[in-house]
């Protein structure tokens, strides 16, 4: 009888040649050896799961924007996931001199009265997303493409290597300071219409409300004055349309952001992204960016203009060929939109969450990893077993 070593198990899992993925779930690498199971009498280690029919298994990380954060997010991972805690601690060391307060302290002991403030909640969101990326990488889950919704583009650019940590933190801090200056100048709401129909509706009502984000073919976010949104909401109710004020006192992605253009561009003077081979699809333009164009003016436009999320996802699943969308954020606020945009495509696309209010710890990240394995996605096991790099190259 030959012992099943960790190397043998992982090499067998990642070596090409089979149509059916094998899911191997154990508490840790030490549990893979020295126990051996003869065949066919005893095979409790392996759970053979049918493939999902994915053509490519090409993964895009989709980074949530504002609205996914919640008081208490990250607490369980800080306690139980050493990789997550290490990355968040590193982010904290970078952000604290810029902010004047500690994101690590705020995540551990949240002051609920301040979490509605954009210059508090969004640095916390970035720290959690950075920690999640590191923790997913430790599980072999890495993207081939990234995109982000609104402020989620900062974490996406950091993940892709287009922004180093210092620059990403710089962007987060200056962007949120600019946003904070617009508090009380308007509100935001969601409406159950696609962008073209929503624009026609708004044109007929004659308010100052505009489409702030095109989230799916039948979902938009609106921004404008409280009075204008009240008019839209009353009209939507009469027409039987879904409408909900989302409780934000900041009219992101609308004309009110014009007032902070100089503040933000000057605050980011001299910064630019670095060239990266990993594609990032911009939800500002719907096109691929390579890095150097991510300067201060880009981040003001990211704050001021419409989030073209539908265009970005069309490019992700179309030109980039991604059929695995991993939503990176503390709660899956984009999942419904992603499924609506991909459910009628000729080839299957899976949407995988990574954390939620109900499942905020390591179990959620482990479940995401197993879901990808079940779907036949090739994970990067060299991060889990660095000693395998040479063996995999010759396998």
Automatic annotation (TrEMBL):
Record-linked InterPro entries: Ac_transferase_dom_sf, Acyl_transferase_dom, Acyl_Trfase/lysoPLipase, Malonyl_transacylase_ACP-bd, Polyketide_Synthase
Coiled coil: none
SUPFAM superfamilies, sorted: FabD/lysophospholipase-like (SSF52151), Probable ACP-binding domain of malonyl-CoA ACP transacylase (SSF55048)
Domain Malonyl-CoA:ACP transacylase (MAT): 62-359
Molecular function terms from GO: transferase activity
Pfam family, one: Acyl_transf_1
Keywords, alphabetical: Transferase
Gene3D superfamilies from the UniProt entry: 3.30.70.3290, Malonyl-Coenzyme A Acyl Carrier Protein, domain 2
PANTHER family: POLYKETIDE SYNTHASE 37, POLYKETIDE SYNTHASE 44-RELATED
Name under which the protein is recorded: Malonyl-CoA:ACP transacylase (MAT) domain-containing protein
Organism name: Actinophytocola xinjiangensis
